[in-house]
Design a protein that fits this description.
This protein is α+β, with helices and mostly antiparallel strands. It has a single domain (5-116), classed as Roll (Thiol Ester Dehydrase, Chain A), CATH 3.10.129. Helices cover 32% and strands 25% of the residues. The protein has 3 helices and 4 strands. It has helices at residues 5-19, 23-28, 59-75; strands at residues 31-36, 39-45, 99-109, 112-116. A 4-stranded antiparallel sheet has the order 1-2-3-4, with helices on one face. The longest helix is centred in the middle third of the chain and has 17 residues, at 59-75. The protein is elongated and about 50 Å long. The mean pLDDT is 85.
């Protein structure tokens, strides 16, 4: 169930304090562009080191960016939160030099929390 606005604001403040030292985002250089209760937008500039043997960015790198957007969006509402399943459909190749921006948004259904992109 969604928390009240005061709880969401407290949780968001705690999350923003925690993400400053988040090791995976720091390692890849993921930029947090926006975080609000139930929503996040992040970006990552694709580097040549992320390319596979076909000259395209590894799908796992794109998954890292999507997962970070997911984790910020869902943890902005209730911390700690985690995924039990994570699916992504890669529709187009990403090349070195591209800026990949992902957004995450959560919504509530009768069965519980759902994250969508």
């Amino acid at each position: 169930m969604p928390k009240n606005t005061s709880d969401n604001n407290d949780n968001l403040a705690a999350l923003l304090a925690k993400i400053k030292g988040e090791p995976v985002a720091s390692f890849f250089g993921i930029k947090v562009l926006e975080v609000s209760p139930g929503y996040a937008r992040v970006s990552l500039k694709m580097r040549p080191e992320y390319l596979n043997f076909n000259g395209m960015v590894f799908g796992a790198i794109m998954m890292v960016v999507a997962d970070h957007a997911f984790s910020l969006a869902i943890n902005s509402l209730n911390m700690p939160s985690l995924a039990t399943q994570f699916n992504i459909h890669l529709l187009a190749p990403v090349a070195a030099g591209d800026e990949l921006t992902e957004r995450g948004e959560s919504c509530v259904t009768a069965g519980g929390w759902v994250f969508r992109r």
